[in-house]
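Hi team,

Filling in the usual template for the complex we talked about on Friday. All components are listed, including any nucleic acid strands or ligand strings, so the model treats them as one assembly.

SUBMITTER: L.P.
PURPOSE: interface mapping
COMPONENTS: four
RESIDUES: 732
SEQUENCES:
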Amino acid sequence: MSGSQRPGSGPRRRVTALDVARLAGVSRSAVSRALTEGASVSDETRAKVLKAAETLGYHRNALVRGMVRQRSGIIGIVAGRLDNPFIAVALEILSRRLQEDGLKSMIYSGDAESDIAVALPSLVEYRVDGCFFLSNDLSPQGAAKYTRLDIPLVVLFNSDMAGISDHGDEVPVGAITVDNVEISRTVADLLLGGGCRHFAYIEGLPRATTSRERQRGYVERLAERGFAVEAVATGNFNYADGLAAARGLLAARPRPDAIFAANDLMALAVLDVARAEFGLSVPEDVAVVGFDDIGAAAQAAYDLTTVRQPLADMVEAGVDLMLALIEEPDRRPEEIRLRSHLIERSTTRQPYGMSAPERAAGPQEA
Amino acid sequence: MSGSQRPGSGPRRRVTALDVARLAGVSRSAVSRALTEGASVSDETRAKVLKAAETLGYHRNALVRGMVRQRSGIIGIVAGRLDNPFIAVALEILSRRLQEDGLKSMIYSGDAESDIAVALPSLVEYRVDGCFFLSNDLSPQGAAKYTRLDIPLVVLFNSDMAGISDHGDEVPVGAITVDNVEISRTVADLLLGGGCRHFAYIEGLPRATTSRERQRGYVERLAERGFAVEAVATGNFNYADGLAAARGLLAARPRPDAIFAANDLMALAVLDVARAEFGLSVPEDVAVVGFDDIGAAAQAAYDLTTVRQPLADMVEAGVDLMLALIEEPDRRPEEIRLRSHLIERSTTRQPYGMSAPERAAGPQEA
DNA sequence: ATGAAAGCGCTAACAA
DNA sequence: TTGTTAGCGCTTTCAT
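RESULT (copied from the run log):
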């Protein structure tokens, strides 16, 4: 009945709105309206159209729709390494949240600045309505300088808004982070309260603002109370490098009795090295604190004291910001800081005579 | 210099190929050709165009390009829960692989059949050139029956090719899996060789072919050698339910001295429960085997014996198949089974007098 | 090698 | 409410 050409060879011609219109005996526009939320169509017409669409197996073409409306409905997401559960789970939550609003997620995997320089233009070609950066490290500043983008950019878990471009134009980027400095001061207090005296820090990537802010709060608070961070190692936010960092730190003399890692993956590496390779007891010989509160942190094998970033709230804030930025292109992107929380588990010692209300809290995702 | 309208208000008009053409003093088509690999343009013209594009900040519109060429360059990916590291890492590898071919990944997060029924049509609206399913459970069969799709579908890590639709039409779906039955027989042999006598199994989702095939190989081989699986619990492929399954299994009498879990996440749960809650030693009191070989399996805290799925090879095979299917729409999708490998670590006992060449192998990703 | 012209499939402004 | 008419920005014959 339909005029399909050459059955089963070549790229079969897809059903168009015109086909549906003809079968339903209405105009193209009627079809368009029948399929658009809140357009003015009679129930009768809509029914005819829907029926025709059904029998023909019609799927409207969102590419064309996006072109015509000058809004694709696609959001770009540049994501860092997904072997970091924190980022992986964040990606899932974000894409689900976007789905609720009928938006599609186009992802680009990259973990270097150079990747962004490729990702951004290629995403812009697809006319994404906006773009997220999911990483405790990546920032679009470098790339955005060289490409005129004109789309909202929002960074999650990071806050590199540093950018003044070559042309002197500021590159405005929204950012959602936590109170890294403040919470890291609390970490210092916790460790101090547990009687620790020799402090070490494992940074993520040296250039990452998250890593630096966490270090600053930790170092500053320790200094205020008369202590210094005696050793700093680099773990690049991943487990493998965390292993090496932990080995270096634990072999030093005096051996640190407190290690704060800029994320959980590295903290887990410390735990594994301390126990399996150095035969140390945690927290007796060395106390360990991580950051993020990934699922593994709550598992019995680790039961890691860590800082929980409010993942769902951060995503929610990011999406709200993005949506606002899309609606009002002249709006200035903001930097939003949410509060993080210390989750005390068994890798730190209890301060004498203090209660720990959040102790033994379960994992973040139920 | 450029005719931008109303500076800084409303959706600023984007630069088009025509703008570039005018500035370069050539035609629209020249611009198109200059930007297309392998078109016939003089170096001179191309240079002029590139320069004009640069100064104008031109980004070609891939949506329109896709519409005109009848090929979007977008691949849909329906992904299961990303808190399963195996799926998360697979997603990263897949999207990177796609990027190499200049393809974009549009992801849809879902973990239920009902999600697929929504995901598929919405992906088809964006004219994805094909769609992957990343899950040890999800299959597009149910949804594909009701929607005419006409795009290649490839399932990774699963093999539900069962589908004969209501209309009697077969829904052809490509699939990349491993030799679940065979390798699970090997698992049975390993456990038997270690002296285990009371066997239990933790299934993923009861309907998942992966889970069923693994169970079948395990049960069959055990039976051949005179043993039965005394208990089966359901862990739904996730850690939390794995915890409950492990508790049930380990509380039973006689207590199993061998537990094979359909994936690593559940096996880790067994390890945590056995040690922390039941005070058992692994592998002395109970041997544990998982499936997938996620990063955590290789970490010292777990050091789990497991079956490694050749992730990178599977993705590669999947992409090859997808690309072939896109080029030749009449090609029949195949089901490809790759070989998996047993990685012996410390949660199983050594068979007397046998060497274990793959013992203590490192994690899959370096 | 280049330009002119014809679409690709849809939405939106306008009439009716 | 409905149909008609213009585009949206690009690629691609077809001439030249």
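MY TAKE: Chain A touches chain B through 66 residues (CB under 8 Å). The domain at 72-178+311-339 of chain A is CATH 3.40.50.2300 (Rossmann fold).

Thanks, L.
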